[in-house]
Amino acid sequence: MAGVPGPLTRLGVLVPSSNSNAETLTASILAGQPDLGVHYSRFRLPPSLDDAVDLGVLGGAPGLLADAELQAIAFHGTSGSWTGISGDRALCSELETVCGAPATTASVAVVEALAALSATRVGLLFPGPAAIAAQIRDEYDRFGINVQAVSVPASAMSNPEIARLADADIEAMARPAFARDVDAVVCVGTNLRSGYLVPGLEDEFGIPVVDSAIATVWHLLRVARAARPIHGWGVLLAEH
């Protein structure tokens, strides 16, 4: 509508309560995009990593975002990467019903990003238990994505501890994932601040790096029909 100040495209993001990366990274990526407004609602994750996130877990958070009459909504979490992408796609359908807008999740976004990049052989960085990383490997295999190398931390960390990792620690943890002959490296975990390192890692290793938080923004823009090249955050946002 001509003459209306502020963003006309309203995007919603459902953020785990322990995540301190979602809002700041998304704001940094979309700085300079005045037509896009992002609105957030928080919820508490279930106590076990084995528990899938569904509408029951999200509680009233989606409905509160729906009041803003969104163009698209995203669940900013990666649990579907090991509990099942099919479950996340079902969650997207439920969110579309509740919010009246197309939906995605971080896990769905990563799979879609790898398809856009034609990447089928990947390295995986996951800031959680090796047993969960093995489940991610198995889940990706169902989509024709072969995980060639896995890097996980030496000891368990809480979600806030993951967010406090220094750049050097993230980079050191990422390097083993850059195995020979991989098409891309995937960083799974939206509270891991690997997104800020993507351009440097891509320059050094010459392959795409798909950070799950960046992929969430990328796919959210696509489902909102607001996609555009955004530079400074890696090849996915700049060229796809």
From TrEMBL:
InterPro entries registered for this protein in UniProt: Iso_Racemase_Enz_sf, MaiA/AMDase
Pfam family membership, one: Amdase
Name this protein carries in UniProt: Asp/Glu/hydantoin racemase
Originating organism: Arthrobacter terricola
